[in-house]
Design a protein that fits this description.
This protein is an alpha+beta fold and about 500 residues long. Helix content is about 35%, strand content about 25%. The protein is elongated and about 100 Å long.
Amino acid sequence: MSDATHQSDRGAGDAHATRLLAGVAKSEITTDDPQVKVNDPLLAKALVLDDGTTRVAIVTMDAVAIGGIGDISDEFLPELRRRIEGELEIPAANVLVNASHTHPPGRLLCEHEQQVERTLDAIRRAASAMEPVKVGSGVGFENRFIVNRTLIMRDGRHWTVRHANPCPPDDEVADVGPIDPEIGILRIDRTDGRPLAVVYNYACHPYLGVPRGGVTADYPGFASSVIEENWGDGVMAFFLQGAGGDISETLYKDVNRPRDAEPRGVMLGLSTLRALRDIKVGEATLSVSSEIIQLPRRTDIPQRIDALLEEQEALLHSLRGTSLNFKTFLPLYLKHSLWPEYPADDSFRYMQSAKIGANEYQEIDAQNRRNIEKYLKNIAAMERLARIRENIATLKKHQQINDEAGEPTASAEVLGVRIGECVLITAPLEALVEVSLNVKRASPYNHTFMAAFSNGYYHYGPPVANYDKGGYEVTECLLGPEWQECYEEAALRVIRRL
């Protein structure tokens, strides 16, 4: 359902667009709290583009989300847009603000007033420093460190890889979901050939952190540094988060080495540079279109909670008493796993026992196997009970959010920006990668990149087919399954108007 559409420019303009102008600037937005350890600064970066008819501001922020959760309030975006429109004459509808989704624990950003002022200052400085540019777009490729964290189980259900719950038994996993290894790239050069800006779009979930701890822009921050240091001439790299709702790092659950985002950042930065060199630049114009749609809020949360409570009760009834505790279970389990034929002692003791007609070793082995089996079943039930507890708490939280909204739908913006032959299309939520792939396939433009986590935040956006499969992203979702069709149709309408 659509509320309104908007195609925006600055009004009067020449019938033929003038040369494209661009300006860039950045401001630090890291928390000012001296008690917070900072590994690397968090930035708000501004790219302002003007083709003589249309002016656009693209802002990338090292933040969890633009409102909804984290340090940026719901008031930030409307306040920033009002200030931009009033002071810089850039239409509010022509402002794209994207969050990288970096989220180490604790406070990350400065206070609200400073967030607005510092971000606005970056946009102001970018707008005052515009110069003629040429642009080109292309794609890179990086698939070595990302994985879809939604595991497809043999029974058809989903299990999400998270720190809040263990991974499932290996023999129950049938497959993993899709990833999008494409790096969408917009290259912006000065007319003398020197680089000005690189915008790169990638679907990921940056929450690795660094071994020394503290606030970090995670691997997108390291990737941007690699691009800027190697491309030279003061170029500014803009990381534009993609549909990374269900994308994780392959080593996310690694317990054998420190969590370190820097190597992944280096890989992403070098892969972007590799593709960047082959992108040709030329003259380009701008086009902007946006649409406000109503996304349905989900209505099935009470029924899902009831189903989880039933499953919880069944698991509690499945627990069985055993004489083992962990201290006795672990050595027995290892012995029966390593030496299943002779777990209790050396083989000759079993052989001698058989020669004299005794069977005490076989009896104790059988008893221990029964206890090991019961203990393992209790462990599996415990792991599922922990997941259920987490899911019930999450569903209750989202039911409260929807109840407090007091409306059956959520008003969401879909913004499209065409820069030459490159199209950026926004989603105000953590879109799962399948949604982005659908939009890319349907777009008439070869270089269509989804900027999820942009201009608002409505938590996760899973495909309709996922809703009854039990994954975390469906649990952590405010919207009804109809949202996907509503969004994808609106995104395609906006793209076709560009």
